[in-house]
Design brief:
This protein is mainly alpha-helical and 173 residues long. 72% of the residues lie in helices and 0% in strands. The chain is built from ten helices and no strands. Helix 5 packs parallel to helix 7. The longest helix is centred in the C-terminal third of the chain and has 17 residues. It starts with 9 loop residues before the first helix and ends with a helix.
Length: 173
Amino acid sequence: MISGQIQPNQFSFSTVLKACGNLSDPYIGEQVYGYAVKLALVLVNCVGNSLISMYAKSGRMENAQKAFDILFEKNLVSYNAIVDRYAKNLKSEETFLLFNEIADTRIGIDAFTFSSLLSRAASIVAMGKGEQIYGQLLKEGYKSNCRNNQERIGGKNSLVFFIELTCVYLHEG
């Protein structure tokens, strides 16, 4: 593509950066990102979000955080990319700080965000954090019925584990 007549666009860069993340090869990804800088496509959210995801999937959370911090305009995809990886890398403090930041920005929280947060709270048995997330979940309108909530927040495991944890907490408290 580069040697041909067609110039890569933001979607090309986003796709290649995602592939580099899936391969855990941030070095090639950094070269690709450098070319995106040259073409002035780095201000496009999908390129920045893909860079965050690439670094995070490669285990380079410090770089992912830096890429997140320099984003011109953060959106829910940006937050989800980094929150999910912090949760998977067992970084509780960072995960919940970002959760509070999302709530403060009024961007909104989706099923993916709740799933990441609930699984993290459940894995560390963080009852207070779990209650905070559950309260936000209800505030966002995820309250129609248990089966529907399970589907909307990314599956049964996180929600069921949290509910079981809540029942034990309430029973023992």
